[in-house]
Design brief:
By secondary structure, the protein is of the alpha+beta class. The protein has two domains: about 230 residues, no CATH class; about 70 residues, no CATH class. The protein has nine helices and six strands; from the N terminus they run ααααββββββααααα. The protein has a six-stranded antiparallel β-sheet with strand order 1-2-3-4-5-6. A hairpin with a 6-residue loop joins strand 2 and strand 3. It is elongated. Keywords: Cell membrane, Membrane, Transmembrane, Transmembrane helix. InterPro entries: LptG, LptG/LptF_permease.
C-alpha cells in the first residue's frame, strides 16, 4: 500500500525519465535553433551596425521560446522511450511480479513530471516573458538597435456601445485625462452615422467635451466645423489609460492585477483570463504525459505489439496538444468560458489516461 514500495526502483525510473527529457529538449533546441538561425541570420546582419555578436543575442532570446514551446513534446517522447525500454527489457514484468502496481510504476514519472512543470512555470514567467518582449520589439524594428526614440507608438482604440474612439495621444489620468487628435465613429445599430474629428477631448459628467471639431455627416456627405461639442457616451477615461496587455509579455503575478484593472475599465478580459489559467495548466501537461504514455509500458513485448502501443501513446499525447490549442482558440473567440478553455483538455485527458490504465492494467 506504499506509494513507493521500493525507493531504489522509484529513483531508477525517475532518473531514466529525467535524463531522457533533458536529452530530447537539448536535441530539439539545437536542431530547431540552427534551422531558425539560418532563416534569420541574413535579416539580422543586414541591419546597419549589427555583427556576428548580434546573432548570439538572437540565439539567447529565441532559445527560451523554443524551450517553452517544445518542452511538453520532449516530456512526451521521454515518457514513451523510458516506458518502452522498461517493457522491452522485461523490467515492468519484474516490477509487477514484485507486487508493484501500474500506478506505483508510473508515480515516480508523474512526480518527476510535476518537478519539470514547476521548473517550466518559473522559467516561462521569469525568463520567457522578458525574452519574448525584447525579441518582438527588436523584430518590429527590423533588427536595428531599439531605443526610446525608435520605439513605436500606437494609437489607442476604445469601444463604447456602438461607437468607436481613436486617440493618437493620451495624457493624464482620471478627470485630468486629455486626448489628442481624436476621431469618433458615431454608429447607430452598427451603421455609421457620422465621423467626429477633434483636436482635443476632455472628460465631462456623461461623456467628453471636444474642442476644434469637424463633423462629417455620412448621409448628407457634408462637413461642418464647430468650436466645441459635448459628446455623450459610456466611454470613460480609464479605458484609455489602461494599456492593452499581451499575456506573453507579462508574468502571472503581474497579469492578475492587470486583469482586474481591465475589468474595472469595462474592457473584455476573457482572453486574458484564459491565458492566465493556461500559464498554469500548460506546464502541468508535463505531469500528464506519463499517464498518456503508460500504454507503452505494459503488455508483453514479445507479442510484437510494443511499437503499436508506443504509437497509441504518442497519438494520445499529440491529441492532447491539439485539443489544448483548439480549446484555447475557442476561449479567445469567446465560444467557451475561459476557465474551461484552459483546463478542460487537461481534465479530459487525465480521465482518459486513468480509464485506459485502470481498464487494461488495474
Amino acid at each position: 500500500m506504499k506509494l513507493f514500495p521500493s525507493n531504489t526502483i522509484a529513483w531508477y525510473v525517475a532518473r531514466m525519465f529525467l535524463i531522457r527529457t533533458l536529452a530530447f529538449i537539448v536535441g530539439l533546441v539545437v536542431i530547431l535553433e540552427s534551422l531558425d538561425l539560418l532563416g534569420e541570420s541574413g535579416k539580422i546582419l543586414a541591419a546597419a551596425g549589427n555583427s556576428e555578436a548580434d546573432l548570439w543575442v538572437y540565439v539567447g532570446l529565441r532559445v527560451p521560446q523554443i524551450i517553452q514551446l517544445f518542452l511538453p513534446f520532449a516530456v512526451l517522447l521521454a515518457t514513451l522511450v523510458t516506458l518502452a525500454t522498461l517493457n522491452q527489457n522485461s523490467e515492468v514484468v519484474i516490477f509487477k511480479s514484485a507486487g508493484i502496481s501500474a500506478h506505483q510504476i508510473l508515480l515516480p514519472l508523474i512526480l518527476a513530471g510535476l518537478g519539470v512543470a514547476a521548473i517550466n512555470f518559473a522559467f516561462n514567467e521569469r525568463i520567457v516573458t522578458r525574452a519574448t518582449e525584447t525579441l518582438r520589439a527588436w523584430q518590429a524594428n527590423e533588427y536595428r538597435k531599439v531605443t526610446e526614440e525608435t520605439a513605436p507608438t500606437t494609437a489607442r482604440w476604445v469601444r463604447g456601445g456602438d461607437d468607436l474612439f481613436n486617440a493618437e495621444t493620451v495624457t493624464g489620468t482620471g478627470a485630468a485625462t486629455r486626448l489628442g487628435n481624436v476621431t469618433i465613429y458615431d454608429r447607430v445599430d452598427n451603421k455609421l452615422v457620422r465621423v467626429v474629428m477633434a483636436e482635443a477631448a476632455t472628460p465631462q459628467a456623461e461623456g467628453w467635451t471636444l474642442a476644434q471639431v469637424r463633423i462629417f455627416d455620412v448621409a448628407a456627405g457634408t462637413i461642418r466645423n464647430v468650436p466645441s461639442l459635448a459628446f455623450p457616451t459610456s466611454v470613460v477615461p480609464r479605458q484609455f489609460t489602461t494599456a492593452n496587455i499581451d499575456p506573453a509579455y507579462v508574468p502571472l503575478w503581474d497579469l492578475i492585477p492587470q486583469i482586474g484593472e481591465q475589468r474595472a475599465a469595462g474592457k473584455p478580459v476573457d482572453t486574458l483570463v484564459a491565458a492566465a489559467h493556461h500559464k498554469v495548466s500548460g506546464p502541468l501537461s508535463a505531469a500528464l504525459m506519463p499517464l498518456l504514455g503508460a500504454v507503452a509500458a505494459f503488455g508483453l513485448a514479445r507479442s510484437g505489439r510494443l511499437f503499436v502501443r508506443a504509437v497509441i501513446g504518442m497519438f494520445l499525447g499529440f491529441a492532447f496538444f491539439v485539443a489544448d490549442n483548439f480549446m484555447l482558440a475557442m476561449g479567445n473567440f469567446g465560444t467557451v468560458p475561459p476557465v474551461m478553455a484552459a483546463w478542460a483538455p487537461f481534465l479530459l485527458f487525465l480521465l482518459i489516461g486513468e480509464a485506459v490504465l485502470i481498464r487494461t492494467e488495474e
